[in-house]
Design brief:
358 residues; ATP binding; SoFic-like; 58% helix; three-stranded antiparallel sheet; 4% strand; 14 helices; Fic-like fold; Sll6098 protein; 5 strands
């Protein structure tokens, strides 16, 4: 039901450019909920339910959240042109970062901080302009674009969009449809001088949690948006130029289902990997298996580490901790990643491989 002015209109400005003025949500005429849309919505809802169930089965759901937040931070930042990888971020956090690694790792670390901050604030503050500004300030602190008014909406243009939004007062709109509409509208308004893409993608996660569609922040759609980046941008532009909300929403719902199904598979992989590795250590390491399992348990939150970390966890001397790490390398669970005789760092390679995409 594409109607050119349905999402807003371009208005000539005295400065000589045309500015797009978005219309308030929900769209008018309303989103056409044809059979394909209902089918996609149903698949997305079921996939989110399976994801919640899969993570409930984890012995410690927080370890899954820990890695998924970092993976999402990397992928969302890469869409904006950063080069930092998941390994770079984990090395930075474990203080083993190679000085030659990308400097924009700080942007990814800020994204992680913004996720954690926003989720904590949601306990006392609903999704609001205030919360969005606070998240943006965390995201931009001390990184590229930090001089461009972090935490403040742009004031250089008076055409950034309608001030009102009647989505909450509209006749029933399915929650996932609301979230898809909100993301597209946010990216259209582009309220900040920098960081709009990352904040807009964070908004999806926060809305899913606020509306209790997910118990935990485990639906990260940046991999899907990165995988189909051109299509993503084209469909958002199609909303503005042609009022084609339906094509965008169908793309969005496919992404929700694909991403949720992949996350649920990853959760099941982790459960299986933990059990397989526990059995392997009991079989291969005999009386050393207690310390080995204790160390391995910490690596789900610290998959890149040094021998000093092994000493802290096990209480072993440096030579014995070093021998324990070597034994874990020999059975294929750890890899030395620095190639140095001193200040060596190791990674829990099979676990990192689970999150290798992107």
């Amino acid at each position: 039901m594409a109607i050119a002015s349905r999402a807003g209109q371009y208005v000539q400005q005295v400065e000589g450019y045309r500015a797009f003025i978005p219309k308030p949500l929900p769209p008018n005429p309303a989103v056409e909920m044809d059979q394909e849309m209902w089918n996609l919505l149903s698949k997305a809802d079921r996939a989110l339910g399976r994801l919640d169930g899969s993570t409930d089965a984890l012995p410690n759901p927080n370890l899954f959240v820990f890695m998924y937040v970092r993976k999402e931070a990397v992928l969302s930042s890469q869409i904006e042109g950063t080069q930092a990888s998941l390994i770079d971020v984990l090395e930075f956090e474990s203080q083993t970062l190679d000085p030659d690694n990308p400097q924009d790792v700080a942007e990814v670390v800020n994204y992680i901080a913004a996720v954690n901050y926003g989720l904590k604030r949601l306990q006392s503050l609903p999704i609001s302009l205030r919360l969005i500004r606070e998240i943006h300030e965390k995201l931009m602190q001390g990184v590229r674009g930090a001089e461009r008014s972090p935490g403040e909406f742009r004031r250089t243009q008076n055409w950034i969009g309608a001030s009102g939004c009647g989505l909450q007062d509209a006749s029933y709109v399915p929650p996932l449809i609301k979230i898809g509409l909100a993301h597209a509208q946010f990216e259209t308004i582009h309220p900040f001088l920098d960081g709009n893409g990352r904040v807009g993608r964070l908004l999806i996660t926060f809305l899913l949690c606020e509306q209790q569609i997910l118990q935990r922040p485990l639906l990260y759609i940046s991999y899907y948006f990165k995988k189909y980046r051109t299509r993503y941008y084209d469909l958002l532009q199609g909303v503005r130029d042609a009022g084609d909300w339906e094509s965008w929403l169908k793309f969005f719902l496919r992404g929700i289902a694909e991403t949720a199904n992949e996350a649920a598979r990853t959760a099941r992989q982790i459960v299986q990997l933990k059990e397989e590795h526990r059995i392997l250590l009991l079989d291969q390491m005999g009386r050393k298996s207690g310390n080995a399992i204790a160390l391995l348990e910490t690596l789900y939150f610290k998959p890149i580490f040094t021998v000093e970390h092994a000493m802290e966890v096990t209480g072993l001397s440096y030579p014995n901790a070093n021998k324990l790490v070597k034994d874990l390398c020999d059975v294929g669970l750890l890899e030395e990643i620095t190639g140095q005789k001193r200040n060596r760092a190791f990674c829990y390679a099979p676990y990192l491989a689970v999150f290798k995409d992107g």
